Amino acid sequence: MTNKKQEQLNKVTKQNDNDAMTTNNGVKVNEDENTLTVGERGPSLLEDFHFREKIMHFDHERIPERIVHARGFGAHGEFQVYEDLSKYTSADFLTNPDKTTPVFVRFSTVQGSKGSPDTVRDVRGFATKFYTDEGIFDLVGNDIPVFFIQDAIKFPDLIHAVKPEPHNEMPQGGSAHDTFWDFFAQNPESTHTAVWAMSDRGIPKNFRQVEGFGVHTFRLVNSEGKSYFVKFHWKPVHGLESFVWDEAQILHGKDVDFHRKDLYESIEKGDYPEWELGLQIIEPEQEFDFDFDILDPTKIWPEDQVPVKIVGKMTLNQNVSNVFDETEQAAFHPGHIVPGIDFSNDPLLQGRLFSYTDTQISRLGGPNFNQIPINRPVNEVHNNQRDAMHQMNVHKGQVAYHKNALNNNEPHTSSKEEGGYEHYQEKVEGHKIRKRSESFKDYYSQAKLYLNSLTQPEFDHTVDGFSFELGMCKSIMVKQNAVNQLNKVDRELAERVANNIGVEVPEENEEVQSDAKDSKLTMEKFDIPLPGHSVAVLINDDIDEETLKSYAQTFVDNKLNYAFVGKQPRNISEDFGITETFDTAHPTLFDSLMVYANGQDLLPEVEEFAELTYKHNKPLVVNEEAAQRLQNSKLSLSAPGVFVSNDPATIVNAFDRARYWDR
Predict the structure, then answer these.
(1) From start to end residue, where is composition biased (Polar residues) (predicted)?
(2) Any catalytic annotation for residue 192?
(3) Residue 69 catalytic?
């Protein structure tokens, strides 16, 4: 984070060791443990202004949580562009490679409340606030590049359908229920996004390893006024990984905060998450050259047709100081743009431009939410807006209108050449109508493209995702209608899901007849760097201190996170030893496993730990003693990704793949 933004956040009240307690009006407090009463056992007095202020503030500590994206976690960082992009845009932060721009990023789930688990199957929000010298630019996107609906007027319907059902307020945090899948079956435009959500993309392993997408088509506008259509991408430097469904379900109970804890601890250790910013750019004259409408938010621009140009890097390097002040009060808005960036006529984006201001006013108590430090731009703000709830600025002077002569017409407007924002002058004409463009009405081709592009394990996992979600529905009609929709995309998917949930396979094969693929859609396209992964070392019996230290040194040298797990903790030094037990550790919390045995029979907990790691296709290393004792277990020592070795460095080679799907 740059100094400008840090100075703003530092303006909040700090507490030092020698600060005297005061009321919010600055009066020093001489006692803070007893209310003012008549005598020691008498009634409390209404005149106790300190108690009234303290309890009043407590009563109002919680603000309304977001209707969607309530479960979120954020961090600060910085962005730097690799090259001058002035050919495409006049945006200062995208044209000056020497400039570092502070950012704040908030990751979130969509459906669940603020207290729901991190690891549910859901779309993840990926919202980035750029504090540029020209104002704030909010890139408010998701980890899936498409959305369920094409027009914002249907957003309340989508969210009402996916939220807990109103008659019983269940289920919390997921879409596996009747109303969502009824919406899916009756609104075929949701098909493409549903296929993404039911794939491995719907259960990411952590926030560090998700892609980010702006979803919508925006415009870049250069200083000469030329416009380009653009889609924004975040490509994770640490690779792209997901859970398997069984693993994600277990984690709901083992660690409800798994994703936020991973992000927080990574930054605290200095293993900073990084993403590269990518742009897909289409010339205006190419707008109608594709077999999809580039303004349709339920469609991707296939990367094999429109390559992603990598233009910069974002690094998250500082955790928030206070989650409420920063993460919860952060007010994102797709309408927060800077000169050089403009909107397209995407009907979903157009509706979001209206909705987000309304939401922030409701949540944050009035129109002055942009004066909260986390929302404040780094450049100065001058205008004639006054008063309203939670006004933090003290405005001086006689004049609060434009134009004026009493103050020499200050604050004055700026021309485009002086940095004033000017909308792209797109020619628009037509009748006022309520009608969807015919070019938006292909609902299935890109869903088929996505399925065609998956590896066999990824396809199988997508079948499992649909089977679980639809299997949780109570209505046979809803299940059947949903399968009928899948039958219009892919026959094999429809048949397998129908058989799994006990409904009829549609008689007629209506699937899209296409073998088209996009090589960039499979998660297998990403290399997975070794640093940042975790290994659990199970200590079945005694292990000498030097062996333990040699293991630890190997992990540190390869930037692997690790924990030694035993029946009881054992402190070798203040900050080193067997820190976890079989009660506190679990294989779903780690990316790999090493089993150390030294002559004794394996504890039942060790065998169970190894078998679940094996089931979830993770790298597994056992020493020779442990291998002898695992001969009769449920795992095969000759299976891919299982290594018999006494050398702790074997784990490095074991991470040739993050998962061994051929096990």
Answers:
(1) 9-27
(2) no
(3) yes
